[in-house]
């Protein structure tokens, strides 16, 4: 999840090649054309971003203004997007565009009748520039409502090169080898992993990577839609695999108690902070931003990653998350809003944030040279290369009562499992009970 989380543009030549010689303000483009075609109009864009993410997204908004003349206003919603947007609609003050961080919320908005189907121009760009899985996650039924502009790569294990070098281990390619390497790291004086058990969403991400690799994409899709019960043997097997880590006191910094008292930023600090306690931390590509911004690490030198390894002979998983742009029916400027989404669907728009850092795009037409560092290029390349094998974060596809609420549902049950991983079958039963109630609701 982690939804909150130097050149600004690639060269004009690169963008012109990517966009058919229109990227740098020459002739009209899918974004609504040059010539300040939207001068005098204003669009309001709402999203969860704050801090550096909001600052970098503002650069995208400014680039759209420079191209079209339209003014933009960003409104930060905080994490509870659906509640904030719902209240704004009821108050007659709906934003024109919302950047939605969860598939489940996008589906909820569509079912409430809040969304406008995206334009044919945007849909054509998605068909041409994206793997079809991104269109699937942006659609409800056969209607495309959401354009995935910003993505996360949630199958990355981050490590201290010094810690692994000191232990004499290399990045592993299988889950068993990762645990074995962890024991070697532990023997050298550091715990293997820093686990952010205080934040339940990180535990869902651990489970999802194991499950996708071990059970395969078809079972993953069925479980995500609750067409497969959480009591299925594949779920019990994945929990058993995860439990091997949770019950091994050598592998986790501070053991189970320490993990349950560590939040996500704290888990990164335990690997990359001034007093390291562990050699590795699993989470998405956004770990790099924390390591760089808070602890001054040079990404690729002081902090690096390896892909989440394959489990029990399965394929290495690629789990993603992302923010989808949608247009609200009750917005005051739908035409300009549609033009903005046409712009977001271009490599030109993605290049603005890619150059600023802290961003991955699922747009396969974006030149990788647009990214600000080699590690971002590597993670972006991995995400795009995965194509239709990418699977969206399962908990983000679930109703919030099950997959997105602190102290409840999957988050709490997996925290309880971290505390006591002795009975995977009982944990699976608890997960099914909570899922059945949430999906029914």
TrEMBL record:
Keywords: Signal, Transport
InterPro entries: Bact_solute-bd_prot1, SBP
Matching Gene3D superfamilies: Periplasmic binding protein-like II (3.40.190.10)
Residues making up the signal peptide according to the UniProt record: 1-23
Entry-linked Pfam families: SBP_bac_1
Top-level taxon: Bacteria
Family: Belongs to the bacterial solute-binding protein 1 family.
Protein name: Sugar ABC transporter substrate-binding protein
Organism from which the protein derives: Streptomyces olivochromogenes
């Amino acid at each position: 999840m982690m939804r909150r989380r130097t050149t600004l543009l690639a060269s004009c030549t690169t963008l012109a090649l990517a966009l058919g010689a229109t990227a740098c303000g020459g002739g009209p483009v899918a974004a609504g054309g040059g010539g300040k075609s939207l001068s005098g109009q204003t669009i309001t864009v709402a999203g969860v971003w704050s801090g550096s993410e909001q600052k970098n997204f503002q650069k995208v908004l400014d680039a759209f203004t420079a191209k079209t003349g339209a003014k933009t206003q960003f409104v930060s919603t905080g994490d509870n997007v659906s509640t904030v947007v719902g209240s704004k609609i009821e108050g007659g003050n709906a934003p024109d565009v919302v950047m939605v961080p969860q598939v489940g919320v996008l589906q909820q908005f569509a079912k409430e009748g809040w969304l406008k189907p995206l334009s044919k121009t945007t849909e054509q760009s998605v068909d041409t520039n994206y793997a079809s899985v991104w269109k699937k996650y942006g659609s409800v039924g056969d209607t495309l409502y959401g354009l995935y502009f910003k993505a996360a790569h949630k199958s990355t294990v981050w490590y201290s090169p010094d810690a692994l070098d000191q232990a004499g281990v290399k990045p592993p390619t299988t889950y068993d080898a990762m645990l074995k390497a962890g024991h070697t790291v532990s023997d050298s004086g550091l715990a293997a992993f820093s686990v952010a058990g205080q934040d339940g969403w990180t535990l869902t991400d651990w489970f999802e990577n194991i499950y996708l690799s071990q059970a395969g994409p078809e079972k993953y899709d069925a479980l995500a839609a609750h067409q497969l019960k959480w009591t299925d043997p594949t779920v019990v097997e994945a929990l058993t695999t995860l439990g091997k880590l949770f019950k091994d006191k050598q592998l986790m910094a501070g053991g189970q108690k320490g993990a349950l008292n560590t939040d996500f930023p704290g888990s990164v600090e335990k690997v990359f902070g001034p007093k390291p306690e562990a050699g590795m931390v699993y989470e998405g590509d956004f770990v790099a931003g924390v390591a760089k911004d808070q602890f001054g690490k040079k990404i690729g030198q002081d902090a690096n990653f390896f892909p989440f390894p394959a489990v029990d002979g399965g394929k290495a998983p690629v789990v993603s998350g992302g923010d989808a742009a949608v247009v609200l029916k009750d917005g005051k400027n739908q035409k300009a809003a549609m033009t903005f989404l046409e712009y977001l669907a271009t490599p030109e728009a993605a290049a603005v944030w890619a150059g600023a850092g802290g961003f991955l795009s699922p747009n396969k037409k974006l030149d990788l040279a647009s990214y600000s560092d080699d590690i971002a290029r590597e993670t972006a390349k991995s995400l795009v290369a995965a194509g239709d094998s990418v699977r969206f974060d399962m908990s983000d596809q679930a109703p919030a009562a099950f997959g997105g609420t602190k102290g409840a549902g999957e988050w709490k049950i997996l925290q309880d499992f971290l505390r006591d991983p002795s009975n995977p079958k009982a944990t699976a039963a608890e997960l099914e009970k909570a899922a059945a109630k949430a999906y029914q609701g």
